[in-house]
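Aim 2 progress update. The chain analyzed this quarter is reproduced below.
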Amino acid sequence: MERSFIARNPSVLIFLAILSLFTFGVTVLSEGFGIGVISTSFVKTLGKTLCLCLIAVAMDLVWGFAGILSLGHFAFFGLGGYMIGMWLMYERTRLIVAESLAQGDIPPTAAEVTDAIGNQIFGVVGSSEFPLIWAFADSLALQLALVVLVPGVLALLFGWLAFRSRVTGVYLSILTQAMTLALALYLFQNDSGLRGNNGLSGLQNLPGVSAPQSVVSVWFLWASAVALGLGFLLAAWLVSGKFGSVVRGIRDNEARVRFLGYSVEVYKLAVFTLTACIAAIAGALYYPQAGIINPEEMAPIASIYLAVWVAIGGRGRLYGAVIGAGFVSLLSTWFTGGQAPDVSLGFYTIKWVDWWQVLLGVSFVLVTLFAPQGIGGLFDLWARRRADRHGADLGPDDGALREKEASQ
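Predicted structure tokens:
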């Protein structure tokens, strides 16, 4: 009798239990729903960290399991943020404009309201007209659909062109980085339709919601936790079946998998597109908690950081990606937030705000050289030491040749 998915993957249940306990604990200690031990700003930091863990799971799926080192997944992350940010900014501005114009003696026309909204949003870049890409900004349902559709279509087109040409290895990584750079440079322009370098701001204010930020931050924490749990569950389910076996085979020996009759390009494209959608969902939850998004968030260096997180956590281990992203994100917040004390060497004072990136780079090099399995590998080592497999059956039947006998 075949065991269930959870029975074959107990780590999934453990992960979901830990995530649930973590979310419950933060809620109880928060200012919005609990005793106020954890500040609202730190609740937002934890919520954003969960979103970064979700994109790390996507990165591990495409790189750790399929062997595709994408240096462009943060572009999809940013696109997801822009899509939901457009609705947040439009609706919030519409409510403000409508309230302001309603104070006059003559009710404003629809055209006057639209012009006023456009002037408020795009006046910073010297315009007042809505670009075509804002056509659905007044509809939450359509913008939520675009959160997945826009990055998904971009990933599908890019992946189809790259994989059908059989671009692999470092060349594919360079192409994904070039795609990210081109997108970021385009968004920096004022005529991109997304306010250029100014980006979208005020995203933390939910339109029509009067609840304080202490409450809203916990709502987003819950949403981020649910998204991470579902994303982890989906990724674990995919890699535990035939699909996972094929993509691991592609990672280890693409030519042999192709010789066996599998359509390598289709599998690669499926993984690349799916992970782009997961990254976009993570971005759509991240930036309302951050409050602002601009093209700098999509710079190629961000995708490189993502690869570093996964490598430090343990590539090819979904929980390792979560550990790496969570560990580095929280540690980065501690170092760059001025909480880490400076270290005086007499002739020089180490200020971690300036040296944090150097420390991260050195950590990546050390992990690559001396601990290629990352932090997650430590859990595997601990599990192997606990496992007592002496005398286990080596065959499918009871009484088959056992390990001890085979070693003699």
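Confidence is low (pLDDT under 50) at residues 394-402, 404-408. Residues 248 and 348 are 48 Å apart (CA to CA). These observations will guide the mutagenesis experiments scheduled for the next reporting period.
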